[in-house]
C-alpha cells in the first residue's frame, strides 16, 4: 500500500486513466493549474539544471549525452531541453497514449520515447547525463525506490532536477494559492476539460504529496550532492537541483 492507502497497481491505473481522459486539453489546463507560470518554471528548471551540469563538468553545452524527461506527458519539458542544445532526449511516461505524436506539444522531440514507470527505468546503469521530472513527483509510489532508480541510471556527475507544485509559502502567498487551488481552479478546469473532478484530485495530490523538505534527505541518502532547493513564485512550486 502507498501513502494514500492504495496498492500501486490500482493507483497506477487510476493515474493513467485520469490523464488520458483529459489529454486533449492537458496543456491548456495546466496553464490554469499554475496561474500561467508553468512554462516559466520549466525554463527555470532546465536552465539551472544545465548551468549546474556545465559547472560540474567544466564543459559548455551543447550536450551530446542522453537526457531523461521523466513523466514526460505531452513533452513540454522535452521541448525546452531541445532549446538548450540537448539533442538526445528520451521521453518516458506511464501512459503510452500521452506519448503519441497526435498529443505531442509543438516543438517537443518526436524521436525516443518509452512507456515505463519512473521507478523501473529500462536503461543500464550510469548511462544518463541528466534527468528531469516536472509536476509528477507527487504521483510516484515510493520516494526511496524512485530516487534510487534515478541514481542508478545517472552517470557520476550527472544532474537531476525535480519540479513540482506546492501550496505557497509564507503568510501572504500561502492563503492566496490555497484559495485558488481549492476553489477557483476546479471551476476553471471543469469549464476547460469538462472534468473538474480530475482537477480536484490534482489539488489533493499537491496537498498530500511529499514535501520538498522530505525529498532532500532522500536524495542525500541516495548519494546526491550539491542539493539546491528553491521555491519560485512565492512557493507555488518547488525546484530541486542535485548532482550525482
UniProtKB/TrEMBL annotation:
Source taxon at top rank: Bacteria
EC top class, as a word: transferase
Keywords attached to this entry: Methyltransferase, S-adenosyl-L-methionine, Transferase
EC number: 2.1.1.-
GO molecular function: methyltransferase activity
InterPro entries (alphabetical): SAM-dependent_MTases_sf, UbiE/COQ5_MeTrFase, UbiE/COQ5_MeTrFase_CS
GO BP of this protein: ketone biosynthetic process; methylation
Entries under Pfam families matching the protein: Ubie_methyltran
Annotated TM spans: none
Keyword Transferase recorded: yes
S-adenosyl-L-methionine recorded as keyword: yes
Protein name: Class I SAM-dependent methyltransferase
